[in-house]
């Protein structure tokens, strides 16, 4: 097999057998295109000729190239793709040694998720108030995203039938894994108003679709649409900060933990496979507690 054939086989594997999303598979394809292009430049045209030194050299190349050097986070992601590829080749018997097994990613800086305060969330959601079709839809969308911590892909992927008994929603996350998340009263009210007063009208503007959130032409709302909706709401709310769909997810987790929720419960609600991923939010709440302590305690300063 040639290198391109090996890459195609791996991408089929992650798409079909592992059930990864189309977006993730596309990202793997881009990463491996960069990798195999570099291998070709180095005169490597067969996976059996790749060694640990080869993979390390590729990583050094990515980090030092003048035109667009990658950050530590991007390097770690690119290496993760390459390691998955070589692990697959070993499992399939294409090579006798996993060339990328002992190559370590660069140390990542410790970064905290960006969350906004409860008052800022309230201001953002209030910016979607209104009786127009898009107002009703935008209110339901943002209320649901903050109420459930849904990723933007999960929100736009919702179908009407995924809203169960008005107070529970079924989200389909990474790897097609489903989870059930409750809806609070504000989200319930907003979604109900949208379903009764807006969606029936929007659905007549396009082909029949089970999608919950529709664009103004009746098709399923796209991720790009959600970005624009949140950006517009942020501008109207005059918060003066950059807000993305993931901001609502971060705020959801941070506010739950600050309110006393168990980290394992938050892990389940977010759909994290590991609690270690969720625990980064505990650092956010610890910082908030520290700020309050320094401000309020008479002998803290």
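-> sequence recovered:
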């Amino acid at each position: 097999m040639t290198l391109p054939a090996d890459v195609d086989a791996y991408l089929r594997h992650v798409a079909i057998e592992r059930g990864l999303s189309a977006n993730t598979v596309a990202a793997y394809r881009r990463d491996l295109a960069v990798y195999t292009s570099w291998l070709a430049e180095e005169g490597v045209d067969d996976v059996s000729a790749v060694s640990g030194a080869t993979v390390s050299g590729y990583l050094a190349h990515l980090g030092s190239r003048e035109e667009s050097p990658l950050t530590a986070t991007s390097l770690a992601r690119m290496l993760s793709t390459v390691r998955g590829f070589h692990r697959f080749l070993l499992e399939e018997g294409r090579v006798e040694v996993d060339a990328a097994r002992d190559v370590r990613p660069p140390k990542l800086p410790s970064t905290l998720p960006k969350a906004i305060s409860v008052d800022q969330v309230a201001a953002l959601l209030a910016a979607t108030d209104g009786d127009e079709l898009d107002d009703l839809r935008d209110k339901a969308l943002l209320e649901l995203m903050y109420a459930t911590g849904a990723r933007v892909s999960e929100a736009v992927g919702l179908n009407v039938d995924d809203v169960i008994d008005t107070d529970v929603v079924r989200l389909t996350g990474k790897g097609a894994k489903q989870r059930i998340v409750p809806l609070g009263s504000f989200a319930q009210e907003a979604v109900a108003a949208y379903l009764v007063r807006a969606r029936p009208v929007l659905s007549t503007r396009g082909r029949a679709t089970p999608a919950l959130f529709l664009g103004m032409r009746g098709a399923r709302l796209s991720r790009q649409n959600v970005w624009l909706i949140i950006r517009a709401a942020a501008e109207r709310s005059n918060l003066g900060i950059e807000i993305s769909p993931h901001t609502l997810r971060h705020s959801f987790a941070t506010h739950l933990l600050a309110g006393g929720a168990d980290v394992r419960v938050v892990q389940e609600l977010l759909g994290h496979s590991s609690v270690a991923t969720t625990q980064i939010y505990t650092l956010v709440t610890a910082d908030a507690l520290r700020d309050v302590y320094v401000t309020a305690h008479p002998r803290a300063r």
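The longest strand covers residues 168-172.
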